[in-house]
């Protein structure tokens, strides 16, 4: 079977190149989606922490500065 595939690839390499290009595009798309999801989740976690934190009293703010 592999000999037949190699013979076909030698005769017409374009289908193999098209599949390889499609695989590359899909891989890059999935990496981009993963990065976008990671950034989105970290932003939501940061906003949640920002909303949930305790307010600092005024006299503590004066000591910090």
TrEMBL record:
<keyword id="KW-0472">Membrane</keyword>
<keyword id="KW-1133">Transmembrane helix</keyword>
<feature type="transmembrane region" description="Helical">
    <location>
        <begin position="28"/>
        <end position="51"/>
    </location>
</feature>
<protein>
    <submittedName>
        <fullName>Uncharacterized protein</fullName>
    </submittedName>
</protein>
<keyword id="KW-0812">Transmembrane</keyword>
């Amino acid at each position: 079977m592999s000999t037949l595939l190699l013979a076909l690839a030698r005769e017409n390499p374009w289908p193999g190149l098209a599949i390889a290009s499609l695989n590359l595009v899909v891989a890059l798309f999935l990496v981009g989606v993963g990065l976008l999801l990671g950034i989105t989740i970290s932003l939501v976690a940061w906003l949640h922490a920002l909303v949930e934190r305790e307010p600092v009293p005024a006299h503590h703010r004066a000591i910090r500065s």
